[in-house]
Amino acid sequence: MSTVPWFLTDSAEITVAADDFGHVVHEVPAWVARPTDAEQVAALARYAAAEGLTFRPRGCGHSVYGQAQADGGVVCYTGGLDLTYDISSGKLDVGAGARWRAVLAAATRVGMTPLVLTDYLDLSVGGTLSVGGIGGASHHHGPQVDHVLDLEVVIPSGEVIRCSPSSHPDVFFGVLAGQGSAGIITRATIPLVPAPTRVRWYKILCPSVATLIACQRIVARERRFGYLEGQIAADESGRWSYVLEAGTFYSAEPPADAALLDGLSLSPDSAEIEDLDYVSFCDRMQDGWL
Q: Would you say the C-alpha torsion 129, 131, 137, 139 has a positive or negative sign?
């Protein structure tokens, strides 16, 4: 396999594959592969199985505890599987190596969007579907794995299977949030919904973690916002801050702030409010993060 151009052993590739975003676990693989289609992934799976090697998929490397590392085995990058195949009838067929930034761009060109996006868009489709995929809309719609129509998967034996809830459901549900243990996702069909044009974004400073949680429970129960998260962070002096972060989507008139913030027992000046176009809001973490 070392003569195959997408099967690599140079030290720079090996060093990168032995690290991840967590910088905690460092397992050194024997091989690194960069396939460009499902058949190449399948050939890798068959080779690894025949040689008794650990075989791990790796998207953008944002795992934090070595989930995409393979001690003495093969790390299979999925970034080459990044084609957008078709967008029609309220769904998008896309390669697992495509980043959610590309998915959002393709969808919004036709006025659509996925229901759930991660806060950081430079994660791969296959990567987040392999771990769950949680975003600010998950309090309404669940994780990204709840919104998949069908998948193309390479199972450990090296067979390529197209699966869905009704066709090979054991494979379908096994790979979603399966961390690559049941197979490698190479392609996914994702449902789309009409995209809003604007977002009213609220960042509300809370006096305590108890207040933050109480406010989150209220607005989640009453479904006031389309996007909801919370942040707890310490500054350089060790002082903690508690921020309720929420957004409401609209396309015409902006929402009434008083109604959305009613009953949250927060001071009137505790809220920072900003209006953004939808794509800018979804991509707000691009600059200065990661």
A: positive
**How far apart are the C-alpha atoms of 70 and 26, rounded to whole Å?**
9
Distance of CA 167 to the CA centre of its chain: 24
Q: Residue 49 and residue 55: Cα distance in Å, rounded?
A: 8
* pLDDT of 4 over the 90 cut: no
Tens digits of residue pLDDT in 98-142:
999 999 999 999 999 999 999 999 999 999 999 999 999 999 999
Q: pLDDT tens for residues 170-193?
A: 999 999 999 888 999 999 999 999
Question: Within 13 Å, how many C-alpha atoms sit on residue 127's CB side?
Answer: 26
Query: What is the edge-to-edge ordering of all strands in the sheet holding 271-277?
Result: 227-234, 240-250, 198-206, 271-277
Under the banding of pLDDT at 50, 70 and 90, the label for residue 270 is confident
d(CA 18, CA 5): 20
- Of residues 178, 175, 245, the one with CA closest to residue 206: 245
Which residues are known to be catalytic? 62, 119, 229
What is the Cα 188 distance to its own chain's centre?
13
What is the set of domains in the chain, with CATH numbers?
7-77 (3.30.43.10), 84-194 (3.30.465.10), 198-282 (3.40.462.10)
What string of DSSP letters covers 227-255? EEEEEEEE-TTS-EEEEEEEEEEESSSPP
Which residues, in sequence order, are bridge partners of residue 233? 241
